[in-house]
Amino acid sequence: DTGVSQNPRHKITKRGQNVTFRCDPISEHNRLYWYRQTLGQGPEFLTYFQNEAQLEKSRLLSDRFSAERPKGSFSTLEIQRTEQGDSAMYLCASSSMGVFSTNEKLFFGSGTQLSVL
Amino acid sequence: AQTVTQSQPEMSVQEAETVTLSCTYDTSENNYYLFWYKQPPSRQMILVIRQEAYKQQNATENRFSVNFQKAAKSFSLKISDSQLGDTAMYFCAFMKRNSGGGADGLTFGKGTHLIIQP
Q1: Closest to B70 in 3D by CA, of B39, B98, B33, B40
Q2: Which residues pair with B42 in a beta bridge?
Q3: How far is A59 from chain B (nearest CA, A)?
Q4: What pLDDT digit, counting tens, does each position of B11-52 carry?
Q5: Disruptive mutation site among B7, B61, B106, B113 for chain A (greatest number of A CBs within 10 Å)
Q6: How many CB atoms lie within 10 A of CB A68?
Q7: Which of A48, A102, A113 sits opposite B102 (nearest CB)?
């Protein structure tokens, strides 16, 4: 168990370009979350997968954002036509939902820091 | 919807001192979890401690303990014998029990920047 892995760690892009981030959750974790964190703020929920199904999306997730989790394993988050306001740390987290949900814990990756110039 | 409030943007203490970080929350739920996460300069979010709302006993993890006051909706973190490595952002977070996931997964406060001075 190597923890939640995110790639790349840093991404610098020009406004208008597309970017894609990858998250590899802890193996056998069925839940996967994407959060966004701007400087001086706590993480804010973006979207959530239970296995391969994307069950919920935040209003923060505009049409330019799309996330996938094929086969319920790794996940990708793509941002099209990036804007300067997209600059943030994008955090991925995973958890394993127990039968009685008595041990629900989210484990976070190190994040991808996006800078849009 | 739940809200989590951390009223201390920054705190600074001397090494080996004890420090308490405050957190209050607002919810109509009765069954939930509360967490403290630590985020050092590496930006990795690390779980520090977890409290189940139905348990009256306060959670402890080595030098870290909480004071959970359910009626007051207060959940403070006490760090004893503080160390330089404790310097980090600390986030208080709320989760409904038997959460369906999604936006119910975790609601975070804005964080407290804790600085341990040598």
Answers
A1: B33
A2: none
A3: 11
A4: 999 999 999 999 999 999 888 889 999 999 888 899 999 998
A5: B106
A6: 13
A7: A48
